[in-house]
């Protein structure tokens, strides 16, 4: 989860989030190099005393400053396209979870099991047991090291189901079913929130995922039913 003065990404919980962080670092390095180069050229232009009254054109330098940005954009575009296709890939999910956005709470249905559905409301802040504006009364329980498919929709206005540590952000639109998948590679509790400005209480729609082993997950399903 995010903490005070944390300007970086949260620790990744899924392979997709790791790839997103790698792409971010790759792009940032290119931006830093470009910024330093352009800044150096601009400063040197201000302070040098070179004068050439007969220089009217230079096709070679125009060719260079056209081709170099194009090559730089290719170095950004190719990893970006690869990542876009990876984010849309759905690979034999073990479990399907349906998430329904309401004003202002989430409902969840485990489509593979009978009668496993519940509403998830934000809980009142308590100094000992929970996090302010982040904890809920009913958490999503999911098994780790398994592919999970999530179907997302809404009943009233547009919401957005977002869990940063998983690298998942999907709009929940009324009358439309959106789909994505993720793979949780470690146990833990992971927090998210609605990231669409969906009304007065938009900030009070937290998401909490509890990742457990497959054995404990089966026990939870049996006890719930």
UniProtKB/TrEMBL annotation:
Any GO molecular function: copper ion binding
GO CC terms in record: mitochondrial inner membrane
Catalytic activity: 4 Fe(II)-[cytochrome c] + O2 + 8 H(+)(in) = 4 Fe(III)-[cytochrome c] + 2 H2O + 4 H(+)(out)
Main location, first listed in the record: mitochondrion
InterPro entries given in the database record: CcO_II, CcO_II-like_C, CcO_II_C, Copper_CuA, Cupredoxin, Cyt_c_oxidase_su2_TM_dom, Cyt_c_oxidase_su2_TM_sf
GO BP, sorted A to Z: ATP synthesis coupled electron transport
Compartments, as annotated in UniProt: Mitochondrion inner membrane
Gene3D superfamilies for the chain: 1.10.287.90, Cupredoxins - blue copper proteins
Transmembrane segments: 20-43, 63-87
Topology term for the membrane: Multi-pass membrane protein
Keywords attached to this entry: Copper, Electron transport, Magnesium, Membrane, Metal-binding, Mitochondrion, Mitochondrion inner membrane, Respiratory chain, Translocase, Transmembrane, Transmembrane helix, Transport
Subunit structure: Component of the cytochrome c oxidase (complex IV, CIV), a multisubunit enzyme composed of a catalytic core of 3 subunits and several supernumerary subunits. The complex exists as a monomer or a dimer and forms supercomplexes (SCs) in the inner mitochondrial membrane with ubiquinol-cytochrome c oxidoreductase (cytochrome b-c1 complex, complex III, CIII).
Family, similarity comment: Belongs to the cytochrome c oxidase subunit 2 family.
Protein name in the entry: Cytochrome c oxidase subunit 2
């Amino acid at each position: 989860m995010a903490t005070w003065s944390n300007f970086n990404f949260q620790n990744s919980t899924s392979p997709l989030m790791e790839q997103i962080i790698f792409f971010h670092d790759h792009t940032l390095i290119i931006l830093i190099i470009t910024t330093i180069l352009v800044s150096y050229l601009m400063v040197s232009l201000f302070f040098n005393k070179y004068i050439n009254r007969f220089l009217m054109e230079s096709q070679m330098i125009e060719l260079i400053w056209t081709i170099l940005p194009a090559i730089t954009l290719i170095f950004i575009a190719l990893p970006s396209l690869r990542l876009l296709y990876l984010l849309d890939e759905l690979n034999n999910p073990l479990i399907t979870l349906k998430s329904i956005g309401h004003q202002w709470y989430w409902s969840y249905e485990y489509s593979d099991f009978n009668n496993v559905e519940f509403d998830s409301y934000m809980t009142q802040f308590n100094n000992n047991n929970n996090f302010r504006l982040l904890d809920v009364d009913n958490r999503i329980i999911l098994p780790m090291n398994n592919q999970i498919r999530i179907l997302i929709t809404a009943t009233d206005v547009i919401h957005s189901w977002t869990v940063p540590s998983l690298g998942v952000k999907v709009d929940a639109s009324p009358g439309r079913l959106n789909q994505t998948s993720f793979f949780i590679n470690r146990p833990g509790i992971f927090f998210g929130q609605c990231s669409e400005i969906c009304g007065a209480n938009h900030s009070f729609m937290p998401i909490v995922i509890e990742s457990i082993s497959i054995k404990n997950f089966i026990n939870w399903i049996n006890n719930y039913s």
